[in-house]
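As described in the Methods, two query proteins were run sequentially through the folding procedure within a single session, without resetting any intermediate state between them. The first query and its resulting C-alpha cells are shown here.
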Amino acid sequence: PVQELFFESHKDIYETETRLHDHMDSIQNEHYDLELLLQLKQGQVEVPQAPVVTDYSDAIVVPKHTVEDKNAMVLELGKEKTNTLNAIKDFRRRLILLEWEHRLLALQASDFEERTKDVHMLRVTKDLQSVLALALRGPSGGGGSGGTGETMAVGDSRQAAAAELLERKMEHLAQSLKAKTQNFKRQFQSVRAQIATRSSENALLEEKLRDLRQGVKQREHIRRIKATTSAPTKPQAPPAAAEGEKPQVGAGKAGRDEGEIRFKEVQQRTHLLELVKRHTKEIELLRKELDRLRQRTFPTFVHLYQSHPANPDASSGMA
C-alpha cells in the first residue's frame, strides 16, 4: 500500500507540474499575443474582403521595406529580361539586314547577267558597224613628237568621238525600240480585231444554234401531237390494193421527207458544233499568241539597281 500511494502521489505531482507548465505557457502567450487595432490604407490590405465581416485571423502583417525589396527585385529582373529582349531584337534586326543585303546582291548579279545577255544578243547592223569603226579609228596624229597641247587635243578628240558614238548608239536604240513597239502594237491590234471577229461569229453561230434547237423542239412537239392524234384512228390495217389499182404512197413520202429534214437538221447542227469548236480553238490560240506578244513587250527593269537602294529600316523610319 505504501508503494501504491507513492506511485499515485508521484503521478499527481507529474500531472500538477504538467498543468502548471501549460498554464505558464498560456500566460506567456497572452502576455505577447495581443490584439492590436491597426490603421492601414486601402491599397495596403490584400486580404479578400467579405460581404459583411472580414476574417483577419490568418492574416500576416508584412513590413513595408520587405515589400519594397521584393518590388525592387521584380523590377531588376524585368529590366534584365527587357535587356535580353532588346539584344534579341538587335540580333534579329542585323540578321534581317544581312538577308536583305544578300537578296540585293543576288538581284544585282541577275541584273548584270541580263545586261550581258542583252549585249550578246544585240544585232550588229551596218550603222552600228560604221559607228564602231569610227570609234576604233580615232583621230590620226601628225608629226614625230607631240607636245602637251597636242596630247590634250588628241584626248579631247577621242572624247568627242566617244560622245558621238554614244549619241549615235542611243539614237539607233531609240529608233529600234520605236519600230519594235509599233510592230507589236500593230500585231496586238490585229489579234484584237481577229478576236472580236471570232467572238461576233461565235455569237451569231450560237444564236443560230438556239434557233435551230428551238425549231427542232417545235418539230418534235408537232410530231408528238400528230402521233397522239393519229394513234386512235388505226383500228385495223388498211385493205390490200386491188389489181390494177395504184398504191397510196403519200404517207410514205411524207415520212421520208420528215426523215430527210431531220437528217439535214442533225447534219447542220453537227456542222455548227464543229464550227464552234474550231473557232473556240482559234480564239484560244490567238489569246496565247497575244499573251506571248505581251510578255515580249513587257518592260524589263534593267536600271532598277544602278543606285544602291536605301536601307529599308531608314526608309521605314522616314515614312
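Immediately afterward, the second query was submitted; its sequence and C-alpha cells are:
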Amino acid sequence: PAATPLANAPRGLAPSAVIKGCWQLGGGHRGEASSDRTSGAGAVEDFDAFVDAGITTFDSGPEACGYGPSELVIGEYVRRRGGAEGLMLNTKVCAGFSAQTSSPASVRAAVKRATSRMGGAKPGLVQLYWHRYDQQGLADAALTLTELAEAGEIGAVGTTNFDTERLALMVDAGARIEAHQIQYSLLDLRCQNGHEDYCVKNGIAILPYGVVAGGLLSDKYVGVPVRDVKVDTSSKGKYASVARQVGGWEQVQRVLKACRSVGDRHGGQSVANVATKWVLSRPGVPAVIVGARNAAHVDDHRRLFEFDLVADDLAQIEEALEGAARPTGDTYAWERGGAW
C-alpha cells in the first residue's frame, strides 16, 4: 500500500508505506549463514518479493554512510527488471566530513554518481547526511539539492540524522526539505522531544528506521534471557546499545510482552508488526523503513495493513513504556556525543 501524503507536504511525498531499507546490504549484516541473502544473486532476486507485496520504495546510500554496494545491487535489479517504472529509489549524499566533501560541486557529483549506480533512473528522494556540525557548508548543500529538485534531476530533498536545530537552519535558509529519516521506535523516543512537532508544523515527513530495533522487537526474543541473545549483525549491535540506554533487557521484555498481548488481540499479529504499527501511527509518519537481510518477512509485512491499533492497545503499550528511562536529548544527539 502507498503511504498517505501529508496534507501540508510541499509535493505530497508518498513512498510505499513500508520502505525496503538497504543498509543490510552494506556488508556487516550477514548473520546466520543459512538466512544470509545480503550479497550476490540472492540480494538482487529478493527485491521481486518486496515489489510483489507493494513495497516499491528502496532506501540506500553510498559507502560513506555504511551502505556498501547497495546502490549497485539496486542498479542491477533495475537492469534485470527492465527499468524503474513504479519504483521509488531513495538514496543519500553523505557530506560534511571535510571541505572537499561539503561543496555544492561535490554534492552534485555525489547525486550524479548515485543515479548512475542505481541504474540511471531519477532518484525519488535524496537525503543529506552531514558528518560534522562544525564543518561549514550545510545550508549550501541543502540548497544545492533543492536546486536539483527544482530542475527535475531528483524527485525531492530529504535529510537524515539531524537534530532540530540543524534541520531548522536548513529550512530557514530556504531549503525545500520534504522528509527527514531518523531512528524512531518503542525503544527510541527521542523524536518526541520537540522534533516530531517541528516536522509536522513544517510539512516534513518523518521516515523512521530502526522500528523493530534490528529484530530485537520480534517474537523471536519474547521471554528470552539476555545471555541467549546473539549479537551477530551490525544492526543488532547498534540497537543493543540503544536498549542499554532505556533500561536494558528488562525494559525490552516489557515492550515485547505488551506487543505480544496486543498482537494476540488482533488475530495473532506479530510483535514486529505491532511495534511497526505503533510508529506508523505517530504524527507526520507516512512510511517506515524496514531493513531486510532477506525476504523471509515479506508475508508478515503484508499483514501489517490488516489491523489498526485502538485505544486499549495504545494504553497497554504506553504502560510498558513507563518503565523506560525517558530520553532528554534530541534526535541523533547521542550518536554525536550528546545526551540520550
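The first strand starts at residue 18 and ends at 21. We note this only descriptively and draw no conclusion about the first query from it.
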